[in-house]
Amino acid sequence: MKSSLYLTATVSQGNKIEIQNPNLIEGQTVEIVIIIPQPDIPTPDDNQSLSLEQRQAFLKLPGVNC
Hints:
This protein is mostly loops. The chain has one helix spanning 52-59.
């Protein structure tokens, strides 16, 4: 059975994203889905929140049990 985590991340220098979570096991293979807001859609000031539509799409992904 798959489990899921909902995280936000900021792209750092060199176009890198780092993810740390105590539920992840070193050497474990994980699947990652990245949702990038479209520039022409206004986003909140913190640029960390997904729209309701994006959250609903995430919840429909296989293995997402929220």
